[in-house]
Amino acid sequence: AAPAVDGFVAVSQKGSASTSLFSEVERNANFAKLAGGYLFPEIGRRRNAYLEKNPEMASKIISLGIGDTTRPIPPHILNGLLEGVKKLGVKETYTGYGAEQGQALLREKIASVLYNNLIEPSEVFVSDGAKCDIMRIQQVFGPKVVSAVQDPSYPVYVDTSVMLGQTGSQNKETMQYENIVYMPCNPENGFFPD
User: Fold this and answer.
1) CA geometry: angle 136, 146, 144, nearest 5 deg
2) What is the average pLDDT score of the chain?
3) Number of other residues whose CB lies within 10 A of the CB of residue 68
4) Residues 33 and 170 sit within 8 Å (Cβ to Cβ)
5) What is the mean pLDDT of residues 88-95?
6) How many whole angstroms separate alpha carbon 62 and alpha carbon 76?
7) Where residue 42 falls among pLDDT bands split at 50, 70, 90?
8) Is the dihedral of CA 144, 185, 175, 36 positive or negative?
């Protein structure tokens, strides 16, 4: 057996005098169930292939691929970012990590400006993004639940279910996973699942 060094195992590679260290931590087998490829590069490839055959359509395509900025950051937003960063460089105004539900002033502005004071600032939650929140919510329920997703769906909704072990295998014909309810969104139902 290979010698263990602080939780790692030294493994000699065949045909090589070098030695690598590998963790003994078991890999989450659910990751192997993920379908290959990332959606947005595939959308880009299909769009480009279509445009090669149909160049006259270039001005008519509405891209539903990965978002990209097309204009500079507006001055008032840029100034706000710069002022916020400056505060982090001075001991008297340095804040460290903010509150877990978001900065109080920002939550107050969201409640008053965006929601016209119809909600309280305490009802506002500012997070680091929907992808992380979706995973966190699913972690609360664990692997023994059935998830429902709109179809078509943003990949993270399905992928997080797969990674958490909430699904079975992927059906190669339908490209859908067992133990997920796919709710069709199409012209016939007004793009709203039943």
Assistant:
1) 75
2) 84
3) 6
4) yes
5) 92
6) 29
7) confident
8) negative
Three-state SS letters, the chain? CCCEECCEEEEECCCCCCEEEEECCCCCHHHHHCCCCCHHHHHHHHHHHHHHHCHHHHHHCCCCCCCCCCCCCCHHHHHHHHHHHHHCCCCCCCCCCCCCCCCHHHHHHHHHHHCCCCCCHHHCCCCCCHHHHHHHHHHHHCCCCCEEEEECCCHHHHHHHHHCCCCCCECCCCCCECCEEEEECCHHHCCCCC
Residue 17, both tokens: 């005098």
1-15, 77-91, 152-166, 178-192: the lowest-pLDDT one: 1-15
pLDDT tens for each residue of 52-68: 999 999 988 887 777 77
Tokens 């691929």 map to which residue?
A: 65
Q: Residue 116 is encoded by which pair of tokens?
A: 């016209």
